[in-house]
Amino acid sequence: MSGESGQPEAGPSHAGLDWPNPERNRAGVPGGVIRRAGAQGPRSWIQKVLEQIMDSPRQCVTPSEVVPVTVLAVQRYLLEDEPRDTVPKPPLYCYDVTISDGVYQEKCYLDPSLNSLVYQNILKVGIQMRISRVSCLYNEKRIGQGILCIDNVHCGETSDSISLETPFRNRAHQEKPERPLRGGKSHYLALWNNEDPYGDIWLTDKQPEEHNFSDTKIISLSHLEMTWTNRRNFPALLVRILHKSKLRYYGKPDKKMIEPYQTFLEVADSSGTVSVIMWNALCPEWYKSLRVGLVLLLQDYSVKKSYPSRIQPVPVDPQIKLISTMEICLNLRDPPTNIIIIPEKQVKPEWRLPKLNHRFTTRSELDDMPENCICDVIGLLVFVGRVQRSKKKENREDFWSYRWIHIADGTSEQPFIVELFSTSQPEIFENIYPMAYFVCTQLKVVRNDNQVPKLLYLTTTNESGVFITGHRGQPYTYDAKVKNFIQWIRTKSDSGEQKNMVIGGYYPYPPVPETFSKYSSSIKVESLLTAISEVRKEIEDLQYREQKRIAIQGIITAIKYIPHSSATESASASETLRNANRPSTSQAARVEIQERNGKRHQDDEPVNSQYFQTTSTNLSLSNKIRILQGPHANPVAVPQPGASVQTKGIKPGMPSIFNRRANTNASLQGKARKTISDRWESQLWREKKFGLIDHLHYSHVYPESIPRKFMFEHRKFLSEQYNSQPAKYVPPEGRPPKLDDFKSARSLGHFEVTILGLNHEIAIDVAFLPMYCPEDIRTSQIDTLLTSMNYSCAYPQDTTGNDRLPGPRAVAGDIIKAATELDRVHIVGILDICNLGNNKVEVYLHKIYSPENTS
């Protein structure tokens, strides 16, 4: 491995405070010299604080006046070890916060003890905050330089009026490229992951240039493979890029690397394909300019033995030789690599460079593809989930960013379900929305046919790439399957498709297996079960947009239906009530929702929990409750509600306990339902609830967890709501709407489920979120609460003719009735914990395992 060291000095950078000196004694000059302000113009709070620090004999001061300042940027970077440090100390990352007092902007260093405010997305751009203690960190290698440090803050609400026009007091803070205040790093990282290129060091302007090959000696890859160990100088390579990996950041506090990045290119000529590794400073210079399909001339590279544990992507063309004994290294030095992009018009047939081939797969073909198979897909985005994060390793600060999307291509009623990790293309990852034509390459098939429901989805690989605009001219447009998709799209109407599109919300995927033993074998964790006494710590340890799945044991002791809050039946989407999800406790939420009208929109169409397509289905009354398993799934042997909890021997079509009870009533067609209870609590709960040592309330469902019907004219606003918080403030265009103005893609509300620990000392309130979705008469009927926890309940909202089916409250009553018969049954609950940031945490009940299916 090769890299660079040195350059910027450790400690506070040159972009800090400069104290007054006789030669430069005015505010706003380069270096940020402070002067004592006169009476003219508005007085800057930032400058007053700096003057107070100057006059104080101590490094840390409490401002004489605490006023709100606006946060304009929160930027992250790796702080290398100080010379006095012998052991790397967490946290790994530091934050610079840019504030504005209305007169000046100032970039400040956030004391690491306050990092948790960023981890929880409490300290974020656009808010007002009050700084109650500051200090100065001096650069001992420079005269009169230091940086302003924030030591104590109170974060407030989002500011309604923010100006970006205020100048920096210290002009060094606006120099390009931006540099962190501390340490020797020359750049900032993306705020929420390390894979995305961020900042102005990442160039995009590398253009093809014609080259005179008359004096250029070129060697083939196969010849290089045979002779490289005996060579000191290597002739040029003329190759085409077949794959490009996402970025890898390998910075560590104890390594003096300025730009510690790495990326892999898979390149090929007529004789074979080989891996090319681009190191360090070459990545910011070239990464965003290199695209799959470009032809490169590589000179002054180095060659080394390949890394044995790395698996190269398999070439699309099986006739291309895979060279795995060597790797090509490109670096800024040792030696300095020369890279030239050759224009396609200069590429000659006699070079016999391989064409860029794809493995496009249709949704109808996916059902027969084996696990781990690699494919490319093209389709129409019909669902785009919110950005989520998962830890790369426990007890570390590094995260993956990902989101779930659904892609329809017209060859199947089912969409592609894709787990889309960041591919180092933030300009696309953060700007995808339903109704867009989407291409994703190098996806891997994930499937498990031995569980119920069958698991089948695609996930990105290290070489995956995404395309959402500018498809014209791309090599894949000539593929036959791409042409078929384009023909299918031409038959669709935008207005008709838009009502089927959904964005955001909590997405409970992938589903867990039908038995606890299968669940146990499918996950890789240190401890399979979490004690209910440890749940609070699990919740508190989660960071912004992190989602984690755990298993607890307990007893369901209470359940309550919380209707979906909406406006009157005739209200349009823009007139929908603002759903007041402000209370931070479930008790406040319950009181508020009780005071609201429980009616829903007549036009809130049902949405499929598996692929969010709305259709109209005519169903008989006997099909009023279904579980979506897919057309070939078998019924699951799960416990029916009842004291004996006996479930063995369930067969297709066998009525459940709920159906038997329902049959005691007269036909519901054209008749009114009996009064339905929307809550239940057990005798055990009534006995124990006032003697608990802890009761966790996490059943509140916030607006951002409700999937919304997509409206194309508001695509930018909706995309922003479900992306991660940006590092820099971006002013909204006009007066933005509220998220609650957009209709929910679900008509049914949610359930507040209380689980009591086995020792009867701790309880937790969690949310259960069944979803409306269109009926599919091919699916199997299993009408239990236990099953609905796994597959989501499927209730048609309306049918044609005389088959009027029960509404949300009737359905809620049915679910509650099923839950009541779990009284005193010991269950294992699979919980999804979601941290939405800003002290908003939700816990969802994803699946219940009873004694019958925990073995």
TrEMBL record:
<dbReference type="InterPro" id="IPR040893">
    <property type="entry name" value="RADX"/>
</dbReference>
<feature type="region of interest" description="Disordered">
    <location>
        <begin position="570"/>
        <end position="608"/>
    </location>
</feature>
<dbReference type="InterPro" id="IPR012340">
    <property type="entry name" value="NA-bd_OB-fold"/>
</dbReference>
<feature type="compositionally biased region" description="Basic and acidic residues">
    <location>
        <begin position="592"/>
        <end position="604"/>
    </location>
</feature>
<dbReference type="GO" id="GO:0003697">
    <property type="term" value="F:single-stranded DNA binding"/>
</dbReference>
<feature type="compositionally biased region" description="Polar residues">
    <location>
        <begin position="577"/>
        <end position="588"/>
    </location>
</feature>
<protein>
    <recommendedName>
        <fullName>RPA1 related single stranded DNA binding protein, X-linked</fullName>
    </recommendedName>
</protein>
<feature type="region of interest" description="Disordered">
    <location>
        <begin position="1"/>
        <end position="30"/>
    </location>
</feature>
<dbReference type="Pfam" id="PF17659">
    <property type="entry name" value="RADX"/>
</dbReference>
